[in-house]
Design brief:
The chain is α+β, with helices and mostly antiparallel strands and 291 residues long. It folds into two domains: 4-235, Hsp33 domain (3-Layer(bab) Sandwich), CATH 3.55.30; 241-289, CBS domain Like (Alpha-Beta Complex). Helices cover 34% and strands 30% of the residues. It is built from ten helices and 13 strands. The protein has helices spanning 23-33, 37-56, 108-112, 141-151, 186-197, 202-207, 212-220, 241-248, 253-261, 281-289, and strands at residues 4-10, 15-21, 63-70, 76-82, 86-91, 115-122, 129-134, 156-164, 170-180, 226-232, 234-235, 266-269, 276-279. Strands 7-6-3-4-5-11 form a six-stranded mixed β-sheet, with helices on one face. A five-stranded antiparallel β-sheet has the order 8-9-2-1-10, with helices on both faces. β4 and β5 (86-91) form a beta hairpin. It is globular.
């Protein structure tokens, strides 16, 4: 089954909602970064969040970066996404093994710890938007909801989940974001809060066979749910030797000369996909000559 995002509105457009199936892309991230189960769960949640927030952007070249920097053993996670359904990310430490929070429950919050959650949006303006909030629980869904409420003044309900199987593979991954617009009625908020209070976790819903549409239907069917768009989503890096060469070309001439004087080719690895690109001393010399 493919990964995708659905967009929707409800309550006469006073509520907007997003839901995602991200099982395949989370599994791909696990394979690329060789993540232990708790890191798979954490990174998968942040990838789902990034993909849905990316779908909120309108511009062809808009970019979003989410970063969680905590004092837990993962240390830091970074995810970037665009408006076309492409998302990628990496953890600073993929090999975290800590006790379960409770039976069968991975301790994502403990693996992330306390720290700062940063959202950077490059919307083609002179300066990117940069918002920061303190990490509340490290469970990511709670932290994203807090960010929306505090930094964007948009009260939001966020559910994110990754179900890791007994063999450490990804069984399910997905989530939802439901946001209240400024003119939302109080009875709409109360109806949604009642639904949220009695709901199963996202991964339990998915394990029952529920699709992103079904999840939004559960929460919003009594509020006049309207599915407006379905968008494929994938793990995609897009790096290349040419792009890496462009980054190397920004290094000072003295530093490039030091690399050349070592007399050996250098290898540059992409954080997001682990692709390795090699450059000979001749190629480094060409970078200097082209200046």
């Amino acid at each position: 089954m493919e990964d995708y995002i659905v967009r929707a509105t409800a309550a006469d457009d006073t509520v907007r909602a997003f839901a995602i199936r991200s099982t395949n892309l989370t599994a791909e991230a696990r394979e690329i970064h060789h993540t232990f189960p708790v890191v798979t769960a954490a990174l998968g949640r942040l990838l789902s969040a990034g993909a849905m927030m990316g779908s909120m952007m309108k511009g062809e070249n808009d970019k979003l970066t989410l970063q969680m920097k905590g004092d837990g053993p993962i240390a830091q996670m970074t995810v970037t996404a665009d408006s076309h359904g492409n998302v990628k990310g990496f953890p600073a430490n993929p090999s975290v093994d800590i006790p379960l929070k409770r039976a069968g429950k991975l301790d994502v919050g403990g693996a992330i710890g306390k720290g700062i959650f940063t959202v950077i949006m490059d919307l083609g303006l002179k300066e990117p938007y940069n918002g920061q909030v303190e990490i509340q629980t490290g469970e990511i869904g709670d932290d994203l909801a807090y960010y929306f409420t505090v930094s964007e003044q948009t009260p939001s309900a966020v559910g994110l989940g990754v179900m890791v199987d007994t063999d450490s593979s990804v069984k399910h991954a997905g989530g939802f974001i439901i946001q209240m617009m400024p003119d939302v009625a109080e009875e709409t908020i109360e109806a949604l809060e009642a639904k949220l209070s009695g709901a199963d976790p996202v991964t339990t819903m998915m394990d029952k066979g529920m699709s992103p549409e079904d999840i939004l239907e559960y929460y919003l069917k009594d509020l006049g749910l309207k599915i407006t768009e379905k968008q494929p989503v994938r793990y995609h890096c897009g790096c290349s030797k040419e792009k890496v060469a462009g980054a190397l070309a920004t290094i000072s001439t003295d530093d490039l000369k030091d690399l050349i004087n070592d007399g050996e080719e250098i290898e540059v690895k992409c954080y997001f996909c682990n692709s390795a690109y090699k450059f000979s001393t001749a190629e480094l010399e060409e970078m200097i000559e082209s200046r």
